Hints:
With 373 residues, this protein is α+β, with helices and mostly antiparallel strands. It has 3 domains: 4-123, 2-Layer Sandwich (Translation, Eukaryotic Peptide Chain Release Factor Subunit 1, Chain A), CATH 3.30.960.10; 126-239, eRF1 domain 2 (Nucleotidyltransferase, domain 5); 260-371, CATH 3.30.1330.30. 41% of the residues lie in helices and 24% in strands. It has helices spanning 4-11, 36-51, 54-59, 61-73, 115-123, 172-201, 212-221, 224-227, 242-273, 282-290, 337-347, 359-363; strands spanning 20-26, 81-87, 92-98, 105-109, 126-132, 136-143, 146-154, 206-209, 230-234, 278-280, 294-300, 307-310, 316-317, 331-334, 351-355, 367-371.
Amino acid sequence: MISLEELRDIAKMGNKGAGFVSLYLNVNPVTNPGGEYVIWVKSAVKELQDAGDKAMLKRVEPDLRAIEVYIRNNKRALKKGLALLSSSDNSFWREYNLAVPVKSELVIDNAPYIKPLLDMLKRYRRYAVLLVDKETARIFVIHMGEITEYGEIHTEDVPGKHKKGGWFALSQTHYDRHIDYHVGLHLKGVIKQFEPFIKGEDINRLLIGGPEEAVLKTKALLPKGIQAKVIGTFQAGMFEGTLDVLKRAEPVLKAYEEQAASDSVRKLIDRAMKNERAVVGLEAVLKALQESRVQKLMLESEATAFGLQCKACGALSEQETGPCPYCGGEMEGVNFLIELAAQKAVEQNAEVIVVPENKDLRLSGSVGALLRF
Ligand SMILES: [Zn+2]
């Protein structure tokens, strides 16, 4: 998983004498049915060799080799996008196997090229999850459907029920107050560590999970500014596996994302109706893509369509009409018109937003786009 802290560290690595290779690659099997990305990498390397700085190329030769080997050996594990950063000078290697489309780019420089990764942090919502009970806490981040655990906080001296015998000298109410006091200290300590984490990662959507009482207490103790960022709570045991935590958080995430999606779909449709730099419907979106006008592409998660693609210029069309309207080239049938459109949008540096099932968008053809002009 990508983290802002890690990217900040990577950004600092660049120096005049170093060589870095940064590769972003569209490996989506739908748009690369024959593994075309392997050829893409080869020709991009060739292009750099023809045009590039010979000394730099020599320096990054081991990196380019390592990248080719990686791609060859990991074909089966690849998702939609791949990012590889390598600098053998610095014994540095990072791989990000991504479930979202990326624009293919190969950059050789004396610093790593991380802008596409930074953009991903901004474009795809990240959620911080605080799982908390009376004496422990765990911190997770959910991003692009994946969950990663970032740390555990344990407060050693919270007296638990199992220690009850040890507190015989205290009356029951005194004992309860004693526990409350320690739980309060623990929760304050947790918040003290959680706060800089979400600030450092610039995460603005939070979930709190755990036993109900701990969740409520934690939420109440949060500073107002952070409380406002809590999008929901859920119940979970403290020792569940990360995937189980994700499963428990999912209903909250789903409700939040659906609401956010329906808000932005409504805005999109409003703008399209007023003809304010927005279109809905597949043919209109494909036309806007052809004109490089798309800023934000929105599509329903289940949307799929057959269509045509120009063999010469790559133009996409929904309708079966003779030759390519743009270049006169021959059109051929394609099965994944919407995936191809999404990839095209990414290549134009547009944002692609997949919205969960949405009736309004479906009635408008399941796709729409905000336009640059
Ligand atoms: Zn064409």
